[in-house]
Structure formats: structure tokens, C-alpha cells
Amino acid sequence: MAARRTLAECTVGLGVTGSIAAYKSAAIVRLLTKSGIRVPVIMTRAATRLISPDTLATLSGLPVATEIFPPRSGSSPEMAHLETGQSVDLMLVAPATANIIGKVAAGIADDLLSTAIMACNQPVLFAPAMNERMWTNPIVQRNVATLQERGYQFVGPEEGELACREAGTGRMVAPETAVDRALQILLSRLEGLRILITTGPTEEPVDAVRVLANRSSGKMGVRIAEAARDRGHRVTLVAGPLHCAAPLGVERIDVTTAAEMQRVLEETEAGAEILIMAAAVADYRPAHPEQGKIRSGAQQWDLRLTRNPDILARIAPPRAERGAVTIGFALEVGEGGEERAMQKLKSKGLDMIVLNDATRPDSAFGAETTQPAFLFADGRIEHLPLLSKADAGLAVIEGAEVLHGLKSNKAAKGVGTSAKTS
Q: 111, 45 in Cβ contact below 8 A?
């Protein structure tokens, strides 16, 4: 596949077969198109009896193909399967019945979907859906193994309640799971940057049931990760306990405490050209957390706190020395916020810092909007208008891309890339 910059330049062919799980294909189309991906759909004749082609055509914005010999139009009908199989960057078959798996394993191409899969020279991902007895049938397992040996990929099936009202393994994975795997396959083949993003709050244990935390939802970091993903970058998200849905198509590493986040970053940041620290890391933690539950009922309770390490102050300087981009976040309240944020940027050797005032009702924790300011190492300050967090996330990524490009150009010309600021 030729290198492409963004997911919006990619095409995923969706094959839908005659399983009751065909209804999940509507959500798959919606999730893929949300990232700008073009999604032509091919349905088997049996699939059209379970979900309307018009539904998928409406969601994808493209005609749905169902026949290998459709009514004549301007193109040759016998070439339709070749055009579909060769014009996609990934073929996702969801749901995939035992029938379509067996056909492809045996090299049988007797309808539009099977011929398109056989003609496809890009990755093919199957999301199986069938009764457990069918899935565990040695013939089906042999067919799956045959396809895997030839490079075909599978996601699921999973265990749960089946359409036949039995429980077992055979249920198709959730649409989010299928799309997550599809996006990961696409992104692994694009020439994007490696971007490491932190998000969410951290939680510091007081005892076995209580924690010190903050009101961060993690939405801003998630939107940044989604924007980076959609622009074709390979994203790793280090997330504290999120209060929002996690992004699809990115590697996610879950942490709880500031110490855990620091350890993960020290292990992973060297591989990232861009680091964006959007997490609301706790400044303090209980000095002596209890192993059990502190008994309630006392009229007074003194809790001693000790300071957490400043993760960004430890990680940013070595990154500056090797020319990697580092972006921080600053939450300030009241007058002098810009001066304090600029001092933070300079003292930690950052390339950019995103300043936010959480006391604003349109920029509060958990809100869907924000009005940030971008402060740069050269002293520039860019005030943004009120934006959705999705648009603000895109602005952060676009700024990071510019900074990376500038540093890369300096390195190519032999100019020092140390992030010393004046």
C-alpha cells in the first residue's frame, strides 16, 4: 500500500454476510466514516435479508454492491470484484460466517464478496459470527488455521449469549472492537509519527477504598489522541482512570497513580517523536497509605501528604537535547496565568504549553468545549477561540506537527535542536 498521510485517504471495504450479527455492520460503517474513511460495502444475498442495503448505503454515502452481475451501467460488470478488491487498503468481513471462511480457505469465488476477497491484495480481517458448535467444528478450525497461515487476520469471536439463545463462544465482537483492530492495521501501514499522549486524572490511594483524585475527565487527551490517529500517526495513550470513552485504534496503557504514569513514560517516551502531557497528574499523595480500610466515625482525621515527582521536569530536558518535541498543559486560575505558564514552559524546556482556565464554564473539567492559549518557546502566544475539544485536539496536533517539522529541518541542516529558551 502506498504511504498515505491520513485515515481520510484510506478505504476499508466492508463485507457483510448472512449472520444475525449483520445488524452490527451499521455501527461499523458509522465508526469508520467518523474518521473520514471511505467504506464501500459488499453484501451477500443472505445478508440483505437481515439488514437493508439502503441502511448501509445511507451511512456510508456509497452504493452497496450485492451482485457480481448487476444491471449494466457504464462499467464492465465482470470487473467489479477486481475493482473492489484492489481499490481498498483493508477488507473487513463483519460478520464472517463459517460459509465465507470456508469459501476463501478453499479458493472458492462464486459471489461478489468471495471474489472481491480473493482478488484483494491488501490485508483481510475476518470478524467471525456463528453458533459455538459451528465455531468449534474441526473443519471450521482447520479453515481458520489455513487462512491465518496465509496472512489473513481474525478478531474474535467472543463468548456470550448467542442468537440461538445458547451461551458459548461464537458471538461476533462489538463493532468498536472490530473497528479498533481495523484502525490498528491501517495505522501500522501508514508513515505517521510516533506520538505519546497522557490523559485523565491520577488517583493516589489513601487506604484500600479511598483515593485522592481530581475532576479531570480525560476528554481533552482523548480528543488529541483521536486527532493524531485520524491524521495517520501511531498513538500510544497513557491513561489514568477515564470518565469518557477511550479512543479506538490507539495503543492504550492504563495507569492509576502518578508513580505508575512516571514509570510507563520512562519506559516508552524514547520511542516517541512527540510527547503531549495532557494528564492531570496529582501533585501530592498520602505519605503513608493504609493497607486496609480506615475506620469511619472519627470527628477529626489528619492526613499527611508528600509531593509526587514532577514527571515533565524529569522527562522534558533529555527529550530537548535529542530534538524530540514535548508539549505540556497548564491549568491556571486568575491574573498572571500566562506569565506562570510561560515560566513553566521555560523551566522545563518545553516546546509548547497549552494554557487553560478551568474556572470558565465553557472550559471546565468534563465540558465539551475549551478556549485554550498556546504558548511557545520563542515567546509567541496564540489565543484560540472557543472550540469543541475535538477541534482543540486537532489544533494541538497540527501545532505539534509544525514543531516537529521545524526541529527535523534544523537537524537535517546540522543546526542544534536544544530547546533552550530565552
A: yes
